[in-house]
Amino acid sequence: MSKISLTIDDQIVQVEEGTTILEAAREVGIEIPTLCYHPDLSLHGACRVCVVEDLEKNILVASCVTPAVDGMRISTRSARARRARRRNVILLLANHPNDCLGCDRNGTCELQKIAYSLGIRREDVDLLAGERRNLPLDDIGPALKRDPNKCILCGRCVRLCEEIQGVSALQFSNRGFDSIVSTAFGLPQSEINCANCGQCATICPVGAITEVSEINKVWDALEDDSKHVVVQTAPAIQATIGEEFGLEPGTVVTGKLVAALRKLGFDRVFSTEFTADLTIMEEGHEFLERLQENKNLPQITSCCPGWVKYAEHNYPDLLDHVSSAKSPQQMFSALAKTYYAEKEGLDPEKIFTVSIMPCTAKKFEKEREELRDSGYKDTDAVLTTRELARMIKEVGLDFVNLEDEEYDELMGKSTGAATIFGTTGGVAEAAVRTVKEKLTGEPLERLNLGFRGVNETKVEIGDRVVNIAIANGLKNAAKLLDEVRAGKSKYDFIEIMACPHGCVGGGGQPLPMSKEKKDKRAQGLANIDKNKYIRKSHENPMIIKLYEDYLGEPLSEKSHKLLHTSYKKRAKN
Amino acid sequence: MACECGNKKESLDKYLAPLREVLKNYEKEEKYLIPILQEAQDEYGYLPEEVLKEIASYLDLSLSQVYGVVTFYTQFHLEPRGKNIIRVCMGTACHVRGGADVLAAVKDALGIENGETTKDLKFTLETVACIGACGLAPVIMINDDTHGRLTPEKIPGILASYK
């Protein structure tokens, strides 16, 4: 590739041929606002917020889609460029609900931020106010809600769902003023081939796609004296929720998270990591059995409910490969209303289980009819990281300065293996740590799978070489699954996480997100693992106690009843 | 032809048989979506959901992608169409000579709105921008017949001749 030279705002910029004007400007620190552009997605050029002036040709161009050309002279701040950009943003606002106060994205909305930075006021918008859309919401959930009236048609969700997830649940439909982003036939998101991964909600620049909030349900339970409210926190939360309170991505705030939950009034604060360790015990033994019988290999992980629903729709023929182990959330809840209730002498009917998850698919998962093995609905409410942060802010807790506290004992202890569930590659590594040591007595060296979209490695376990692959992002997963379907897969164990980077990049995590932030979050979890005293699930003393006191052994009858599940085939379309 | 989806697989297979004949002539490539939709609509008169699902599976597209294309083009229809298609001209000449009143009279006579089809599937009502017969304004077309110099009073009689 050859270098070209152009001038942007009187600065000479040298870039590779093929670089866009926007990228060239960013290389030298000139910030051009964007809405439809996203570095992880294909170019779209729809919003025209990034217009700049080409001073040679005397025209306005969208900088995100226009390649830089040798000798070009660009102004990002000429009167003409500024006026056009401002007008384009005003036009987006002219058809946008004037509802910032009631919007979940108030404070993280990109449109709001740009309008503020351009000094756009209500009067400017009212001057151009025209016909408004009054379209019905899709808010029946249980995971995601869509408000097409807030949608600015930037198409980021459409591109993400197609290019990164390979699902294409959302698409532009109709035309002109009637254009909307919609599911087929406008069906509710819950009724279609949608994994509920919520990546659309994380990439939406405005509040058009958000999680279905369960905050009020949780407040009601906390205020109800007859309820014993038990909360579990997923591994990824401790390395992400700090961002909501101004901390650097990846800052580990486990102790403050526990303290905040106690202050909010939860009766017991436990960790999903406890049942992540348990998942490893069950899924690991399942894998041992399959290895010995050479049956249903590769075994595919089942802890990601987004992936599980995707599999039910798109690879129903491969469901026998998916581990029957429930996700850690569901194992936890089933035990909370049985094991924990028994230990504490509580009526399980009075126990209300809340999970703090990085995830929107977990909201769908908890509604599954089959996940009632405690005799009750196992999980009562799921809050995303963002929702919990909102509750903490609502009561005015000074999160950053809270004294660290410890999880409650019975279901709060965990190992480093469980912590890394929150990032891509973590479940595979945790499982192999236990499986290898159980079989051979030898500890595992690190797998070092990194945070890439697809990766593979092999581990010698005794005289057998076990081939392991991981994938995050469903389009990446599809590549591995197509091989399995064709009978050409060389792998024995596949870990799949629906969200790029795994749970640290989950649909319920703090916004805005970027690759760099997700790397830092994953690194935060890796550091916890490194520093933990116990790093192997089978050495967790409270897991040993659980088996001794209650379950017997992995894959026992009781384990099967409470900790395993089955899947159903769902239609592709 | 009524959609029998939701019944047995056998009846769905029978229902989709004409579509599968159409699909035989096309490679499984995304670029054939529009010609397939056109042929399917010729076959069924409109594009029922089951037909779109079958096309989506054949081309390995998601249903929402197919739905997006169908709703973009006015030539495609998701609802059954009437035996007779009425096109009321809303062009400039018809507009100044009372096209809106003619449209209102058609709506009244049939009890349907623009874009809708009567329950007995006899008529579908559409408005168009101009049919190029301005000298006859206000004008409507029913199928390939042009009816010009209309007044609202003439509408019931004209419609009756198509029943």
How many runs of DSSP E, i.e. beta strands of chain A? 17
Low-confidence spans of chain A: none
Classify the fold: give the CATH topology of the largest domain in chain A. Rossmann fold
Rg of chain B is: 19 Å
| Sheet with the most strands: spatial strand order of chain B | 2-1-3-4
The percentage of residues in β strands of chain A lies in 5-15%
Number of domains of chain A: 3
- What is the level-2 CATH architecture name of the largest domain in chain A? 3-Layer(aba) Sandwich
Please list the strands of the largest sheet of chain A in the order they lie side by side.
2-1-5-3-4
Mean pLDDT of chain B: 92
Number of beta-strand segments of chain B: 4
**What class, by secondary structure content of chain B?**
alpha+beta
CATH architecture of the largest domain in chain B: 3-Layer(aba) Sandwich
CA-based shape of chain B: elongated
Q: Helix-strand pattern of chain B, N to C?
A: HHHHEHHEEEH
CATH class of the largest domain in chain A: Alpha Beta
Quick one: biggest sheet of chain B?
Answer: 4 strands, mixed
CATH superfamily name of the largest domain in chain B? Answer: Glutaredoxin
The major pleated sheet of chain A works out as: 5 strands, mixed
Largest interface: A-B, 18 and 16 residues
Write up this protein.
- The complex is a heterodimer of chains A (573) and B (163).
- Chain A has 19 helices and 17 strands.
- Chain A has helices at 21-27, 79-94, 110-117, 122-127, 156-163, 199-203, 215-223, 254-264, 272-293, 305-314, 328-344, 361-365, 385-394, 416-419, 426-440, 474-485, 515-531, 541-551, 557-563, and strands spanning 3-8, 11-16, 51-54, 59-62, 73-75, 144-146, 171-173, 180-182, 209-211, 228-233, 268-271, 299-300, 351-357, 381-384, 454-461, 464-472, 493-497.
- The longest helix of chain A is centred in the middle third of the chain and has 22 residues, at 272-293.
- Chain A starts with a strand and ends in a 10-residue tail after the last helix.
- Chain B has 163 residues and is of the alpha+beta class.
- Helix content of chain B is 44%, strand content 11%.
- Chain B is built from 7 helices and 4 strands; from the N terminus they run ααααβααβββα.
- Chain B has helices at residues 9-24, 33-44, 49-59, 63-72, 92-96, 99-110, 155-160; strands at residues 84-89, 123-128, 140-142, 145-147.
- Chain B has a 4-stranded mixed sheet with strand order 2-1-3-4, with helices on one face.
- The chains are: A alpha/beta (573), B alpha+beta (163).
- The interface between A and B is medium-sized, with 18 and 16 residues.
